[in-house]
Every structure is written in structure tokens, then in C-alpha cells.
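Chain X:
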Amino acid sequence: MIPDPRASRAVLVGLDTYTGMTSLPAASHGTRRLSKLLRDLWGLPKSHITVLDAQASADGILSAVRDAAEATRDTLVVYFAGHGLRDQEGENLYLCLAGADPNYPQVGTVAYRDLRRVLRTAGASARYRLTVLDCCYSGLAGAMSPHGQATRDELARALGEPATPGSDPSEDYGDVVLTSAPHNRQSFALPGATYPEATGELIKILENGIPGVGPELSVTHAWQRVRKRLLERGSPAPQQFAQNTVADSLCFPNRAATTAAPAEVSGEAERYSTKLPGISTKIDQTQKNSEGGSSVVLASVPESDWRPAPVGRWRPEKEPRYPGDAYFKQQRAHLYLLDKAWADLKKEFKTVRRRLQVPFHVRSPSSIATWLHQNTGDSRWMVIAESIKVLEDRKKGYAPWTAADPYAAQVPGGSSPPSYQLTMETVNTYRERADQLRADINKLIDLHTDLQE
């Protein structure tokens, strides 16, 4: 799922000059390039991005992260590139500022544990929190074991927090931490390189995309490709630490999706391939993949002048604050109406799956719409998919919430009241948008089935 840029924030820190350590001009270059990619690729407003350089102090960095985290309701991105140090015990990571002393890690640095605590506390309302560390010993952020595989309990211990027993691995919120190196290895910015090594590979992937993975590029896809490229050249292995399904759920637009070659289907994937009504499937016998499979080309569906209307924002710009417990019953009744409208919309996709023969393993409304876009070439399904995501995110601020931190122990009765009052006017707006989307879905289904007839 591509997060809503309007409800997301980013803090990017790149340290290029140091008084007692070697300079890293590649760090600031990478930070500026990532800032532009977040704007151009993701659509993150410039005002939602904070870029800090070698002039930044520890308080300045932590304050910037705090402010961004408090304003985030969807995805918070925090990136650091520079030198990293570890203490004598090899247990704690320190992010070096311009005046860092390599002999005393606690001087002139930001302790990663302090950064993580600010992220956890101020970003409690964020759905996803993505931290990217391109520095030496950055794997300490994930409490990596000597064998290179960190468990959820190890990561919790590294943060000084108890593990959460019995958590649901399908929960769609939480943290993902990406590091350029294991806990005991250095990272590199090669001489003359424009960007630090891991950051450079990530930038290439975001700029060019990955063919064959669809219109959305998950964090897992991107970081696995970074890891593969660095290992091929003998560099330290980048690491990924994630909770729940965050690394697979958190996605960014895949630039290769619009220019990718026809997908190669073989083995298990071929078993699920489906011929859509009114769409011809052509198999070029001259194109063979390395495993002997055939390349399957799905012809595009001709598009008429009609296009579905994007749902857009359905919540008011200025929402009234929640008035307190006296309003609880009415708030709960209005939430029920939102849930019912969403449930009715989900039912519509049973019709979509049946009439357009969507494979059984494609289940959620947004994945159905995305699959139809990939397999028909009809861009209108992506409008449907984006509208679904807007309507799916319906309860933030309206329902009682607990800190969205999968590491922290659950505190009985620790939920907080809603932030905003859910008025009947807002409920009616939501239902109108859901009804319009259902009508657009039905019209798009009819266009596809008419082709068959």
C-alpha cells in the first residue's frame, strides 16, 4: 500500500563534514537526492520534508523528529547518513554529528536509543515508521546476533522494551528499520562516489524501479535488491528488521511498472494465470525464460473517454475536537455507520472477482483492483485502487487508540480517547463517496464484460 503523502512526514539527516573524522560529501548528496525522490516519486509535499546537514545539533535532530512524528498519521520516514560509532561493549549505536569524538562515542553524537524513544513516543499515532540508517555498525539498531539474524525479542531488548507476546503477525502497523551494515561491520562511501554505497543502490532502485513486481514497490522488494547488489561486490550485508507485515505492506510507486517487459510466468505463477473476459492472452513461442517457461502478454483493454472519479478527501479540513465521554455513544453509532458503508463496498468486490475471474488468492479490494490493472493494462483500475485506500483508512482520530508500537507491552486500560468528533455530516460524505465508488466499479465491470459479448 502506498501511504498517503498528505498524512506523512520525512526527516532526512546527512552529515558531510566532521572536525575529528573524515568528511563524507556523499552523505549530503544522498540526502538531497532522496528528498527530491520523495517529492517526485511519492508526492510528499516539500513542507513535509525536513533536511538537516552538518550544522544540526543533537537537540535539533531530535526536535525535528519529534515535530514530524507528532504530525504524522500515516508514514514517518527518518533517514541518517554519516559516521556511526559503538560503545566498548558493542551494544549501543551512536550517530555522529560534526563534532563527534571517535574515542568517546557519547560525545558529539545522538544515541540511537534516544532517537528511537522519540520516534516511539511522538509517533504513536503513525501507522508506519520507517528508519533508514546508512552508517557504520548500524545493525546495532536491530540488535543483530552474530549469525546475522535478529528475532523480534532481540530487537525489543535492544530498545530496552519488553517483547509483546502473542501479537498478531498480520497486524498492519508498526516499524521497519533498514541498516546499511551488520552490528559489527563498517559501511562505506567509496572514493569519488556520489552517494554512500547502500543509499546509492536504494536511489537507483527508486529512480528506475524493479520490473515484474507490479505498480507498487514494497520495502522488502527494494531492500532485498539493495542487499543483493552489495553482497555481489563483497560489501557488508544490509539488514532489515520489521514488525508485523510492515515491510511488505509499506510500498512506494514502482517506476518500472509502466515500462516493464511482459511478465514471465512459469511454475507456480502460471498456475494462477487467468484469462480475463474480453482480453486476449498471447503466448509468444519464441520468447522463453531461463526455466523454459513462456512469456505471457496480456493485451490492453481499450479505454473510453469515461474515467472513474477519484474519491479524494472526505474528511473536513478542520475537524471538531472530541467533546468527551458524554459524546461516546453517538461517536460509536457514527463509527458503526462508517464500518457498514465500508463493508458494503467490500461486498462489491465479490462481484468483481466473480465476473472478471480474479484468482482466488487475490483477496482484498485494493489488491483486486491492482491485479486487474496489472493484467488488463486499464489504468482506471489504479484510480479505483487509490480510492479504496482513501476509504479504507476511515477510523484514524475517530476511535480510541493505543500507542501503535508492537514492541511495547500492552497496558490495561491504556487506550486514549478519540481525537476528533465524528459528525453525521462527515458520515454522510463518506457514504456518498463509497456509493459513487461502487457505481464506478460496476460501470468498469460492465465495460470489461461488454467486450466479451
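Chain Y:
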Amino acid sequence: MSEIPQPLLALILLLVIALAALATLNLLRRRAVDFAALASSVDDGLILIDDSARILAHNPLAATLMKGEGSDIKGQALSLWLKDSSGEQLQLFADRQLGTSMNLGQEILSFTRLAREPKGLLLLVRHHDLEQDIRQDIARYHHSQYFAKIGTWDWQVGTDTLYWSDAIYGIFGYKLGEVTPSYEFFYSRVHPEDRDKVKAGEARCIATGENHDEEYRIVWPDGSVHWMRETGNLVKDSEGQVVKMVGVVRDITQEKALHHKLEQMAHQDPLTGLPNRLQLEVRLSEAIGEAAARDGRLGLIFIDLNQFKAINDTQGHQVGDRVLMTAATRLQSLQGPKDLVARIGGDEFVMLLPQWPTDAELEEVAARLAKALFERFGEPVSQTGRGIQASIGFAIYPDHAGHMDALLHVADQAMYIAKGRGDNQYHLGPDHRADLGHRLVL
């Protein structure tokens, strides 16, 4: 594998960061119920209204029923539809409101309340039929939840009584009716590490009246772990006493997996799995701050594989990739619990030692580390039958530089000084003391 030009590396890095940022933005946009997915899975009109009863979103059928095919009713007040032709307020039921269409037929419509969302209230829009019971509307909505992986719940606060919509059975890994919902059962399915967080979120909602909004993991009957996002709010009686908490739960496992993958793309080298330059710089900045706080030292080691281009040219990129992966594994075998090994270029690796010894001479520690590394690299690689030749540059904070960019520059220059002398050499610090360059012949 030939070394990738630095401008191209920079472009790739910017692209990865942009993809990660875009994915994060999309995740934030999808934190609430996916209106588009839900709207396409129901056979009726669907609208989302804000707290002032203005329409935030609607599907095409809702617009057709309320005003006419192809109409855009976004931003309009729902009150425009809630009166009859004479201006009288139409009948209000416990779970629905009647209204009048603005189309030529002026049909009577029903607006059924389905669920409270962080952004507002979901309403189902249909032609009103006096012979239909409201439970039919709710049942249709619950059926649509299967396709959107969304379920509604209703908990009588302080008791074990919990209602689940049909969709939640599948979301929690069960067949419909296989278990009996209860608060105790729900809590038993929450991942042990997330139970305190769920309890705290519920308590905060009850104490403050703020919306309940938590992400947590559940454990399916087969042992697999799935991510949920749950939103809810309190329902109070006429005297202001809390009666219950109602809300929506959604499976976000796929979103979490995508986010994790993009995080890996942004911070890890795809070939070796090691941290890349971006993650190295983040950790190095943190380590410098920690070293400064304790008046300590840290070490930065640049390692360049010699004659790597010749391996690629003569034995192919697959062998070259294997050499890179072997080098990564051998460097990891030498790192301490708090050390970091990163790959920052085609054949360039970096080791960060955040706790460089302060009770020994710099030269003594560098010589010992270089000897251990060259010995480990000297073991034959199965694909080539030869060991790995390398050049090493050392830079120490604060002895050689006091900030990150300068420290990276010193380590890089030290590595090139060592490389200019041949295989298996190291150099410690800036280029003003040539006597610190050494060759270890093994």
C-alpha cells in the first residue's frame, strides 16, 4: 500500500467528519417519532400540531380531506376546521374533535388524538362516521406502529399498572399477548446499567412536570440488547394531582448502530482498527493538559516503517496490508494501560505515553523503549519471512515543546532524522544535538 498524499488524506478526513456530522444531525432530527414513516403506514390523514394548535406537518391525505387534493395546510390554525358552516363550534368528545372540511363538500371530519410528542400532538383525520367507535381509530393507529417500530404506553404513577400498545410487545422481543405488561416487568427488561437512569428520569418528570425523555437499553428474551428512546408527560386531574404518565417508545437500535459506525469511520483507521490522527490529537491535547496539571512529562513516539513501498511494489498490496496490521498488533503489545497507539498515514504510526517517567534520564528511557520496539519488530512476518525495519523519533513534553502542534512537529522531524541514517535508528528531540541519534543493530 503506497503512502496516500497528505492533501488527499486531508480531503478524506474532512469527508468523514462531514458524514459523521450529517449523521448526527439526522439522528437529532429523528429523535422524535418519525412522522414521515408513520404517515406512510396509516390509511387515513395524519397531522402534527404544536401547543398553539397550528399544523406542523401533515400527510397528503390529510390535506385532501381538510382542504383539497394537493393543498398545503402547514402553518395554519386547526381552529379553522373546528366550526360548522354557521360558525358554531362542533362537538368535542373525550378523545376526538369534530370539524368541517374546507373543500366543496364541506364534509364532517373527526380529529382523533393519538399521542403527545415532544414537538406537539398527533391527530388522525378521517370522515366522521357516527356508527364507528373511537377505539377503531386507535386500533388502526396501533396497527401502524408495527411498521414504524413505535409504541404507546400508559402508566398509573406509583402503581404496577402499565398499559402497552400492541407494537411494544414486538419492540421488546415478545409475541402479542405473550407476556402481561406491568411496571415491574418493564423494569426487569431494562438493562441493569440503565435502570437507575430510567428511574431518575421518571422521578424528574413527576417532580418538575417536565417531559420525560430518555434513551436506554433493554434486553430481549434471547439476550440481545436493543436501544429505546422514550418520551412521555404527566396527566393530571382537575385538582392538579398526577394521575398517570403517558408516552411513546421507539426502537432506535439501527440509528445507534449507524452512529457508532460513523464514529468509527471518523476516529479509527479502517485497516488496522487503530485510532487515526483525529483521535490521536484529541487524546494528545487531553494528555498535555493532564501532564501540565501534575507537573509531569509525556512522550510522543513517531514510527515509520522502512522499505514499505518496496514490499508493496514487489509482493503486492495484500502483503503490504498484512505487514501494516502486524506492525499495529506488535505496537499494541508494547503499550501500557493508559498509552495510545495510532496510525496516522500510509506506513506511519504514533505511540502516546501520557506518563513518561520523571525519575530517569530522557536518553535512558528512550533507549530502552527503542530497543524493545526494534526487538519486537525484528520477529519475522509470516508473509515476507523477514522482520520489520523502522525509524523512530521521540519528543517529550515539556522538555522539547510546550504545546501539541510543536510536539507533533518535533517527533516528526526526529523520525526523519533517524530515517536518514538507515534502518533501525531512533532520534530523541529536536535536531540540535546530533549525538542523540543512535543505531541499534540487532
